[in-house]
Design brief:
FAD/NAD(P)-binding domain, seven-stranded mixed beta sheet, Enolase-like, domain 1
């Protein structure tokens, strides 16, 4: 078996790996893209796209079910679970097909379908014993689901995001473990499609929300639709012939035992690094076994090894993985002339209803870096004009800026159209705008974005820059 000699080897052909491959090819034609599993990104197969397909179906059902609030009567509403899942799978496979087309466009000589591990800092070996000698390496192996010990041993009634979208139809009952982004997106979608859902969280976290006021508001709102205990106590989870039996402490203080068709484990994902034999690289690792790296260059120490995407355990988001992959691939191509790449303003969105958006520095980071040197503006969407018109008037927005300079630092929101408002605020943060300059931008009436102006005006006043906020300000129109 002949050894392979290349300039750059990229381990993993997901979002980060593909971006790294394209960037590296700008420097050398000697690049090998290695994939030990199925081609197709996490986003397309298990993440962003199939979950949004399920959420879209849930939104349609929810709007129809609650149309009577507008005086519109919908009779005979029925959710066809098999048809819902068939569309999810059909469109999911279509998105995966686009990714596979991109992979197949890569020259076969640049691809290797094998699992590999490190035999040295510049040597990889396949399971069949073939050696790959390379000058630089990019680790882009993605992530895998993490199961808590309580769920170990469950068999066919255990779901993760990697198999839940393959269900032939919707279940009747579902227990969701994990109140993070994935858990709440899927729990709410299933609930709105008629599934009886209960969510068991841990340590009080809800959808990654950092601000306690916003988190408490979200907790109350979600509990109006389905059972959510963000700090649950579960004594036992036992698989039966027909499903799963869970013994837990109910929020009312009583211990209860309940049957569910399935358990969905949405308890996080971990970097898929096991089996790479990183001990052979000489790299320094953190407590989770992830190589220490520079987030501006993606370089691991001063080595010729770079890391990108979910494997880095930094920000498990597609746009972040793509950026990291481009930086890692570019630097692998130009090494040792390693350069800092563009890292954009942090932006995260959760597609629940109301949605969650986080922009820039979060509350913990603000308290660390700007302690007693920042102010916070607030807006409620309960009386916001356009939100009330559409009966989507639940939510709050908090915006933050530096005292003195008025520099916009970040925001967190639970409310309507957060995915769009989050983008506006992220662009403002990346352009290093002040609150005053943001308020000079146009705001149309009536739109949900007027709630941003309300929050910014409140913030500007607290910065001692703007005048006192005028209640029911009519230059904005009623309910702005």
């Amino acid at each position: 078996m002949n050894a392979i000699h290349v300039d750059i080897a990229i381990i993993g052909a997901g979002t980060a790996g593909m971006a790294a491959y394209r960037a590296a090819r700008a420097h050398t034609n000697s690049v090998l893209l290695i994939e030990g599993g199925h081609y197709g990104t996490t986003c397309a197969r298990f993440g962003c796209m199939p979950s949004k397909l399920l959420i879209a179906a849930a939104e349609a059902a929810h709007e129809a079910l609650h149309a009577d609030r507008f005086g519109v009567r919908v009779k005979g509403l029925a959710v066809d679970g098999a048809a819902v899942m068939a569309r999810v799978q059909r469109e999911r496979d279509r998105f995966v097909g686009f990714v596979l087309e991109s992979v197949e466009a890569i020259a076969p000589t640049d691809r290797l379908a094998e699992k590999v591990s490190f035999a040295g800092a510049n040597t990889l070996v396949t399971a069949q014993g073939q050696s790959i000698h390379t000058k630089r390496i990019v680790i882009a192996t993605g992530s895998i689901p993490v199961l808590p010990p309580l769920l170990n041993g469950l068999g066919r009634h255990l779901l993760t995001n990697e198999n839940v979208f393959d269900l032939p139809t919707l279940p009747k009952t579902l227990a969701v473990f994990g109140a993070g982004v994935l858990g709440l997106e899927l729990a709410q979608a299933m609930s709105r499609l008629g599934v009886k859902v209960k969510v068991f969280g841990a340590r009080g976290g809800i959808a990654g929300i950092r601000d306690p006021d916003i988190r408490n508001y979200a907790n109350r709102t979600f509990n109006e639709e389905f059972y959510l205990d963000a700090s649950s106590q579960v004594k036992a989870v036992t698989e039966t012939n027909v499903g799963v039996e869970i013994e837990y402490l109910h929020r009312d203080g009583t211990w209860q035992t309940e049957q569910f068709d399935y358990v969905l484990a949405a308890t996080g994902r971990a970097p898929d690094l096991e089996g790479l034999a990183l001990n052979h690289t000489g790299l320094a690792l953190n407590e989770r076994g992830v190589p220490l790296f520079d987030r501006m260059t993606q370089q691991c120490g001063d080595s010729s090894i770079f890391i990108a995407g979910d494997a880095s355990n930094e920000a498990p988001l597609l746009h972040e993985a793509a950026d990291q992959g481009r930086i890692a691939g570019d630097n692998a191509g130009r090494c040792p002339d390693v350069r800092a790449g563009l890292r954009r303003t942090p932006l995260a969105v959760v597609f629940t209803d109301p949605q969650v958006a986080a922009v820039g520095l979060n509350l913990d980071q603000l308290n660390q870096r700007f302690k007693d040197r920042f102010a916070t503006g607030f807006a409620s969407f309960e009386d916001q004009g356009r939100s009330r018109v559409m009966l989507r008037n639940k939510g709050i927005l908090k915006v933050h800026a530096e005292l003195g300079s008025g520099l916009f630092l970040g925001a967190e929101m639970f409310g309507p159209a957060a995915e769009h408002i989050g983008h506006l605020l992220a662009w403002a943060a990346q352009q290093r705008m002040t609150v005053s300059s943001m308020l000079e931008m146009p705001f149309y009436h009536p739109v949900i974005e007027e709630g941003v102006r309300t929050a910014l005006r409140d913030l500007n006043h607290k910065l001692d820059i703007g005048s006192t906020v005028i209640e029911r300000c009519m230059d904005c129109g009623p309910g702005a």
